[in-house]
Design goal:
Blueprint: H1 3-38, H2 45-81, H3 84-90, H4 95-145, E1 148-152, E2 156-161, E3 167-171
Antiparallel strand pairs: 1-2, 2-3
Helix pairs in contact: 1-2, 1-4, 2-4
Length: about 170
C-alpha cells in the first residue's frame, strides 16, 4: 500500500468514525425510547441495554450508506479546500488512482452491508422482539386472570369477575 493510499484512507476513516458513532448513537437512543413508549413497557436497565445492543445491527445496516456518503463528501471537500487534489494531479497521479482507495472502501462496505443484512440483522431483530415481548406476555397473562366488567346505572353498579360466576351489586 502506497503512502498516498494510507493518507487518503486515514482522511476518510476519521470522519467516517465520527459520523458513524454519532448517527448510530442517536438512532439507537431514538429507537429505544420509541419502543418503550409504544406500548408503555416497563423494562429493566438490563433489558434496555440488551434491546439497544440487539437493534444496533439493524440501524447500522440502514445508516452505513448515508454515513459513508457524508464522510466521503467531507473528505473530498477538505481535499479540495486545501488544494490537495490539485497537488496530486500536478504530481502526475491520475484521477482514477486518487479515487482507487475510495472505490475499495465502497466495495468493502457493500460486501459488509450485504453480510450484515443477510446474517446478523434477522437474528438481532428476532432477539429485540423477544426482549420486548417477554414482558408484554407476562402482563397480558396477568390481565387475563383479573378480568372485571363493570356496569353502572343510575341507581346501582355491578362488578363481575370473568373467571368466576360471582357478581357483586352495589345499590345507591
Amino acid at each position: 500500500m502506497r503512502l498516498l493510499d494510507r493518507y487518503l484512507l486515514r482522511e476518510l476513516f476519521t470522519p467516517l468514525g465520527f459520523c458513524l458513532s454519532g448517527i448510530q448513537t442517536l438512532g439507537v437512543c431514538f429507537a429505544v425510547f420509541s419502543a418503550m413508549q409504544e406500548q408503555d413497557r416497563k423494562l429493566s436497565l438490563t433489558d434496555i441495554m440488551q434491546y439497544a445492543t440487539a437493534i444496533t445491527p439493524e440501524f447500522l445496516a440502514s445508516a452505513l450508506p448515508v454515513v459513508l456518503l457524508l464522510a466521503m463528501l467531507y473528505t473530498l471537500t477538505n481535499h479540495a479546500r486545501y488544494n490537495e487534489i490539485t497537488a496530486m494531479r500536478a504530481a502526475g497521479i491520475s484521477l482514477w488512482r486518487i479515487c482507487a482507495p475510495y472505490f475499495a472502501v465502497g466495495i468493502v462496505a457493500s460486501f459488509a452491508l450485504f453480510a450484515l443484512n443477510e446474517f446478523l440483522v434477522p437474528r438481532s431483530t428476532e432477539w429485540a422482539n423477544r426482549i420486548l415481548n417477554r414482558h408484554v406476555q407476562s402482563r397480558t397473562q396477568w390481565k387475563r386472570k383479573i378480568n372485571f366488567s363493570i356496569s353502572v346505572s343510575q341507581t346501582s353498579a355491578a362488578i363481575a369477575n370473568g373467571s368466576s360466576p360471582n357478581i357483586m351489586f352495589i345499590r345507591a
